[in-house]
Amino acid sequence: MLRGFILLVSLFVFGAMAQAEEVTYRKHIKPLFDSKCVACHGKDSAPEYYAFKEDKDKWMSKGQGMRMDTYSHLVFYTAWPDTGALMRRLDDGTAAGKAGNMYQYLGSKDEERQKNLKLFKDWVGNWTMKRWKDITKEDMDKIKVKY
Questions:
Q1: pLDDT digits (tens, 9 = 90+) for 99-132
Q2: Structural domain boundaries in the chain
């Protein structure tokens, strides 16, 4: 009886671990980004950060944002140097009271947007709205952004 109980608990624990798959850029974020974001933030449509900043009004009038279609581009807007930018733009506003300007593009219905936002949150780890000047080393250590 004890053996059966231990086996049952072991199966439950290992099953739960298997379902708690780590979110990675390659497997989860890149496909999501390609389906929802690349039209405005891809290499064929969007400028690099500093080019965008030089002529922001021009790019905004075209409905284009900064280029974010690679892992290193997304890390730029997540961890450093534009810390928290991705989070501020994708956030649903639950904590801040106002949704980010890109939240609406995560899906056609709120259920889909919430599911996709959760993927981004799980990928980032420390979903912070803080900017570089305000973030602590402890905050940075909690940002995961696994490739």
A1: 999 999 999 999 999 999 999 999 999 999 999 9
A2: 23-141
Taking the whole predicted model, whether its pTM rises above 0.85 is answered as: no
Inter-residue contact 135 to 45 (CB < 8 Å): no
Selection from 99, 98, 78, 91 nearest residue 144 by Cα:
78
Cα gap 123→117, rounded to integer Å: 10
Residue 109: Cβ-neighbour burial (10 angstroms; 0-12, 13-18, 19+)? exposed
Q: For the chain, state the CA radius of gyration.
A: 18
| Cβ atoms within 10 Å, residue 84 | 24
**Is residue 81 reached through a cis peptide bond, with omega within 30 degrees of 0 on the bond before it?**
yes
CB 65 within 8 A of CB 40: yes
Instruction: Render pLDDT for 87-97 as a digit per residue (tens, 0 to 9).
Output: 999 999 987 78
